[in-house]
Prior knowledge:
Oligomer: single chain
Order of helices and strands: HHHEEHHH
Distance between the termini: 32 Å
Number of helices: 6
Shape: elongated
Strand order of the largest sheet: 1-2
Largest sheet: 2 strands, antiparallel
Strand content: 5-15%
Helix content: 40-55%
Amino acid sequence: MKFTTRSRYGTRLLMDVALNEENGPVPLRDIAERQHISAKYLEKLCTILRRGGYIESVAGPRGGYRLHMHASAIHMGDVIFLLENGDQAVEAFKTPDGCARKNTCATRSIWTRAVHAMRDTLNTVSLEDMLRDACFCPEDACIASPTYNPGPTD
């Protein structure tokens, strides 16, 4: 499975929203500035994450994005699978009909199992876990806010 900028930037976007939504919706331009990612590219990722139910947008002059669910309910495997188009992340599955040998391929099942095993492994980490880890990140070495306080664990 190949992790593209969609996964890397998408997870950073979620982290940024979670770390900064305390004072209201987080404007996209602020995320772009903090993360050094094009606002145009972040818009595309926000569309995917919004459709996936992870974030919601708030219109208006004080608008922006906020998490649609608690950080503990956001599992990184599901997020990455969504951002990378699931099974499409495996090269052999990218064409509309899949690999030309899909009905006779002896190795297809191992690749399918590998992708799902990776998703399951990544799902052992929630956004809340990542936020908690960010608390230990030295302020000058990390974009995440070391002052994040996840509150009591559920």
